[in-house]
Amino acid sequence: MLRQITAMTWKELKINFKDPGVVAWMFVQPFVLIVMLSFAMGGSFGESPGDENALRVLAVNQDRGAQAAAILGRLDAMGAFAVETAWQGQPMTPQTAQQLVADGQRSLALIFPEDFSESLALARPGQTTQVMAIVGPELSPHSAELSVEILQGLIDQAALRARLPGETGLKATVQVVHTTLPEAEATPTPDAFQQYVPGVTIYGIFWIVSLLAGSVFLEKREGTFRRLLVAPMSRQAMLSGKVLPYYLINLLQIAAMLGLSTLLFGVSLGKSPAGLAAVSLAAAAAATGLGVLLAAVGRSEAQVGMLAAIVILSLAVLGGCFIPRWVMPDWLQTLGLVTPHAWGVDAYQDLMVRGYGLWQVLPKTGVLLAFAALFFGLGAWRFRFE
Amino acid sequence: MPAPMIEINGLVKRYGQRVAVDGISFSVRQGEIFGLLWPNGAGKTTTLAMLSTLLAPDAGQASIGGYDLAREPMRIKALIGYVPQELALFPTLSAWDNLAFFGRIYGLSGAALKERIRAALELVGLSERARDAVKTFSGGMQRRLNIAVGLVHQPRVLFLDEPTVGVDPQSRNFIFEHVEQLKAGGMTILHTTHYMEEAERLCDRVAIMDRGQILALDSTQALVGLLGGGVIYAGLPADKLETTLAAIQALPHVRTVTPQDGHLKLETGDARLALLELIELCKSRDVPILSLEVLEPNLESVFLHLTGKRLRD
Q: What string of pLDDT tens digits covers the 313 residues of chain B?
C-alpha cells in the first residue's frame, strides 16, 4: 500500500511540475501578489521591514506659531527620524496618534500644544508648557530616552534663538514629557509584509483545491482512474495517493513564500520554528481537505473549476488574506471565523507579529486541523470512485 | 481437463427496472482467446465491469483463476490486466513513466520493473520512443502503449476491450500479432470487438450477445456453419408471397424458407447458386423482386441472423 501511495505521489508531482502553468499559478502568482500588495499597500500599514533605519514619529502639530513645524523639520532632516504629520490624508490628531501607538503601528508620537511658539519666545516663570511624547511598549527605554533627549535639545536650541539676547540665561519653559503605554494596552498590528506574506500564502495554498479536484476529474475523463480501480489497490490507498502529492505541493508553496519573503525582504517569521511548522502543516491539511471535498461534490471539470474560483476568492477575502480583518466591521470579523483562512492568517501573525510560541498557536492550529478533518471526512464520505 | 480460467454462472446485473446482464453463463479455458460480440448497449460494459471487480453482480457467480469474484476481488485484480476501449494514459508523461507507474501499482520495483517495462515496450514496438511524451505519439502508437500498460505486470488473464477501434491497418496488424504472441505464451484473453475479421482471426470461441443474454456460443467455424451456405432476404409483393413460397422451397440450393417481417428468409446451401435460382424463378413467374440482401457465411451474417441488427448499429 505504501509503495502504491508513493508511486501515485511521484506520478502526480511529475505531472504537475512538468506543467509550467501549474508552477506559475501555484508559486509565481502568490509570490508576485505578496510583493505587489506589500509595496503598494505599505503606506496603509505599520512600519515595513525596509524602514528600520528611521524611527517613524507621528507628530501632532497644534502650534499657532511656526516653531513646532521648524523643529519637526529639523528632526526629520536628521535622518534618524521619519516624521509623519498626516494619516491617511488627514492631519494628525492626538486621538489618532495615541491610537496608532496603542495599536503598535507606530512606536512614538509627539503632541505639540497650541502655545508652543509663544512659550519658546516668552519665558513665563512658574509656568511650563509640555510637549507630550507617547511611547509605545515595543520601543526600548533607551531609544525612548534618547529620542526625548534629542527633541528636548532641539526645543532648547529653538528657545535660545527665539529669545532676546538678554534672556539667554533663562531656563527653557518647554519640557518634553513622555509616557510609555503599558504592554497590555498595546495590540501590535502587522505591517504590509506581515499582512500579505501570511495572507497571500494562505490564499495561494487554497488554489490546491482547484488543482486537486481538477486532477481527479481529468483522471476520470482520461480513464486512468478506472484503470487504477481495476488494479489491486484499496480505495484508501487511491485516495491517499491522490491527496498526499497535493499536500506536499502546499508545503512547498508555504516554504517558498515564507522563505523568499525572509530572504528578499527580511520578513521575520517569529521565534518559534515549531509553531511555524505546526501552523503550516495544519493549514496545508485544511487546503487539501477542501480539495477532496470539492472533488467529491463537483459534477464536472468545468463546474469544479468555477466552484473552486468562487470558493477560494470568497474565503480569502472573508478570511482577511487581502484586507486585514481588524479593519473590517465587527460582524464581518466574526463571520470571517467560519473560514480556515482567518485562523491560518491569525496564527501566522501570532508567530510573526506578536512573537508567540508553539503553545500559544496550538488552539488556532487545532481549529485548522478541525477544518481539515471536516473537509476530508465529508469529501471521503461523498467521494465517487466510479 | 484443466479447470477453466474464467467461469461465469447466471450472472445478473440490473439498473432499476432495466436488466443489463440477464443470467449469462460461460467459461474460458486457460490460454484461450474468447471473443464477445455484441452491439452497443447490449451489456458489454456492465459485464466487463463485473468481471474486473468494478461492479458487484446482483445474482450469479463468477470466478477467475479459481478465485471467487465476490469474496476475493483483490486476488482477482492481481491476476488480470485491463486494456480499456478508450485510451487510459498520462499524456504528459513518457511511455516509460506510464509503464513504470502502473508497474509500481502492481507491486513491481527495481530491476524486475525495468525488465518488464523493456519487455512490454518491445512487444508493442515502442522501445525507440520510450522516453518521449505520450502526447507526441500517433493514435496507433498510443493504442499500442495502452495495451502495453495492461501487460506490464504479466497478467494471467487479459481483458481486451475493443483494442483496435480507431487504429490504422498497420497498427491493427501489429496488435493482432501481439495478441497471438500472448496467446502462444499461455495468456487467457477475453476479447470484445465489433470487428468480425478480428474475431475470426484471433478468437478460439465467440459468444454472441444481445440484450444482456448470450444468443450463441461456439467456435467461429461452428457459428458460421449456422448459416450453412448463407442467407438471402428477398422482398416480394405481399399478394405473391404465399403462391411463390412452395416453389422457392423446392429450389435445389434452398434449405428453408420462412416469411419474416414481410420478407422471405432463405437459408441456403450455397447463397450464390440459390440467388440465381431465385431470380430465374421470379422471372419465369413474373414476380418482381422488391428487395434483396445476401448474407455471406461469416460472423457478421451470423450476428445479423441471430440478433436482427448489425454490430455497428
A: 566 889 999 989 888 888 888 888 999 998 899 988 877 666 777 888 888 888 888 998 989 988 998 888 889 998 999 888 888 899 999 999 999 999 999 988 999 999 999 988 988 888 889 899 999 998 888 888 988 998 888 899 999 888 877 777 777 788 888 888 888 888 899 988 877 778 888 888 888 888 888 888 888 778 777 777 778 888 888 887 778 888 888 888 888 888 877 788 888 888 888 888 888 888 888 888 888 888 777 777 777 777 776 654 4
B142: chain A residues, CB-CB within 8 Å: none
Domain termination site, one of A168, A185, A202: A185
- Shared domain for A109 and A16, answered yes or no, is no
Q: Do you know the residue count of chain B? A: 313
> What CA–CA distances, in Å, run from A141 to A147, A148, A313?
10, 10, 44
Residues of chain A contacting B, Cβ within 8 Å: 3-4, 6-8, 10-11, 14-15, 18-19, 222-224, 226-233, 386
- For residues A123 and A238, membership in a common domain is answered with no
Query: Which among B53, B77, B90 is the nearest to A224, CB-wise?
Result: B90
Q: Are residues A11 and A143 in the same domain?
A: no
Look at chain A and report how many structural domains it folds into.
2
What is the grid cell recorded at B307? 440478433
Q: Which residues of B touch A6 (CB under 8 A)?
A: 104
The pairing of beta strand A174-180 with beta strand A129-135: parallel
**Final residue in a domain of this structure, among A185, A206, A224:** A185
Asked whether residue A366 falls in the same domain as residue A279, the answer is yes
How many separate helices (H) and strands (E) can be counted in chain B? 11, 14
Inspect the interface and report whether the beta carbons of B149 and A11 lie closer than 8 Å.
no
Please give the residue of chain A at the shortest CA–CA distance from B159. Answer: A230
Its ipTM equals 0.75
Instruction: Report the residue of chain B nearest A11, measured CA to CA.
Output: B101
**Contact list, A23 vs chain B (CB under 8 Å):** none
Helix, coil or strand: residue A175: strand
Residues A322, A236 within the same domain? yes
Q: How many residue pairs from chains A and B have C-beta atoms closer than 8 A?
A: 65
Least CB–CB distance from B82: residue in A14, A19, A227? A227
Burial B73-82 (b: 16+ CB within 10 A, else e): beebbbbbbb
Write down the pTM of the prediction. 0.70
